[in-house]
Amino acid sequence: MNIYWITKKQILFFFAIFFFLCVGISICFFIFAEEKPSFKSTSSISLEDTQSKIDALYTNPEKVAYLTFDDGPTKVATPIILDILKEEKVFATFFVIGSRVEEFPNIVKRTYEEGHFIANHSYSHQNTKLYQSKTSFLNEIQKTDEAIAKALGLPSYQSHLFRFPNGSHTSEYAVAKKNAKLYLKEIGYYYVDWNALNNDSMQKYSSSELLQNLKNSCKGKNTLVILMHDTVDVSKSYTALQESIQFLKQEGYSFATFSSFFSDNSSF
Ligand SMILES: [Zn+2]
Question: How far is the CA of 244 from the centre of ligand 1 (A)?
Fold first, then answer.
């Protein structure tokens, strides 16, 4: 009888231990289950955060000008632009075409070494190639990155920033561009358009007209992302660049490049 009573007590004791163990495991499980999605959402928020920060530039109240030059490098225009930027002590972002990087790697190297940011503007700049398929789009990005990395002698270089040829919002290739934005997100890339320009893509403006176009385009805007080109097959922005920079300085603008969005990344 006595023995039976002790055994019962022992059973109760072990039952109690088992009960508390189950409670403990359940608590751990719930803590884990809570942490997992919050980790996932944090990483996806930070990815979208950078894109939303870029998108929010146009409503930023600070007077900051992001000078951007597309379609280079070219033998004639890019070095002249670099000389002017150096003289004015201003840094810019160059959205380069991969095939031209392969043609003029030394100009890209010089651009980078003088403190400018090199970003991706596709390999061919041809919509038919870019939007043929997901693979062809990603190839265009990758081949350009590889060309830049080779030119700079920095094997891991990736700008993480893309500019769509002709911009991300066009009626032509609208669906393809919408899909391409998702592909960019998958590979940790962001994109940026512009909110100011001097219309140099139309080959008809003199330097004073380019300056006037820019002044008109900047009116009432604080943070500016200014589209220009460092090629010679358009109106020559370099002929109006120095005066354009001086105008922006007089208007109280400071200058920045898009590298500031990616300063945490060691590849830059
Ligand atoms: Zn372009």
Answer: 21
